[in-house]
Amino acid sequence: MKEHQTKLSSVEISSLWGTYQSSTMIICGVKYFLETVEDVEIQTILEYTLDYCQKRIQTITQALNMENYPIPVGFTDQDVNLEAPRLFSDTMILLYMLNMGRFSLTGESMMFSLSARDDVADFYSECLLQSKELVSRARKLALKKGVFVRYPYLSTPTQVDFVKEKSFFNGWFGDRRPLLGTEITSLVNNAERNALGEALITGFSQVARSKEVRQYMLRGREIVAKHLEVFSSILHEEHLSSAKNITSEVTDSTVAPFSDKLMMFHVAGLIASAIGQYGISVSASPRHDLAVHYARLAGEIAGYTKDGANIMVDNGWMEEPPKAADRDELVKRKG
User: Fold this and answer.
1) Per residue in 254-283, pLDDT tens?
2) Fold of the CATH domain 177-314
3) Tens digit of pLDDT for each residue in 37-49?
């Protein structure tokens, strides 16, 4: 980034700080995957991701140095064990990379739209192009290998129609209409995310060093399995397909490839994303019963998130994000 007279705003500094954290985490994951992957085409996707994430770290470090802002700790080589045996199959790695690309697109589009400085906006514009390319490569390869989750097809109507009855919104009581396309999209998307989350957290539960972290991961495994079942059952009621359980893509290894700190951070990020996605799903789901499901499930994982945050704080793993000055504390210091 070039020198700029205007200071980084709260959204810009927070965005860069968060991207630094997530990029250093992804670098650790990709380095480990490169040690275990066997498929050459997946390896190429991993190498592409590693290259652009490392460049992001360089750019963010330069920007923060110009602001005299402390460089975050993030995650380092101490958080990854490259000699650990394979924990996830090649299929799992591919699906993981596809979904990480999707997560990145969502966050980076917002960061781009909210940035005022040209250099920051340009950086996130480039990030979007990189994440788009990652999703494109992973999607095409997943389709080629037959592991891409295809959403259900809809029948073609004979004419345009309008909603005539308030029963359109019925859920628990009265006649329920068939699911809308937007509702199906949200249900399948959330089912797919939870299927991946269940497999990932299953692997983490096997390898976590701390008993406290292992128990936390086991609890999380039960939660995401339940959420997957809720979304899938709603789809199955209307004879629609859902995402499949993929925990069979996790090996029986008990050797940790990642630090407990990294795994806890990763799970926290996935849960935060899920809460946001559930909120979006409510807005896209007029049927009342669906909104109730999303609200209830979001509340459940919010409590799980709080317990995870306490574990991270107790172990000194939670790096404090950029924040506003504590004016009251400044006054107290003056005596």
Assistant:
1) 999 999 999 999 999 999 999 999 999 999
2) Ferritin (1.20.1260)
3) 999 999 999 999 9
For the stretch 154-188, pLDDT in tens is 888 888 777 766 666 665 555 678 899 999 999 99
Rounded to 5 degrees, what are φ and ψ at 88? -125, 145
Architecture of domain 10-145: Up-down Bundle (1.20)
From residue 76, how far is each of 86, 187, 262 by CA, in Å?
20, 36, 10
Tokens 């799980």 belong to residue: 304
Burial of 105 (0-12, 13-18, 19+ CB in 10 A): middle
Find how far residue 269's CA is from the centre of its chain. Answer: 6
Q: Domains of the chain: which residue ranges?
A: 10-145, 177-314
CA distance 66 to 151: 46
Same fold? 10-145, 177-314 = yes
Residue 200: name the closest of 226, 229, 220 by CA: 220
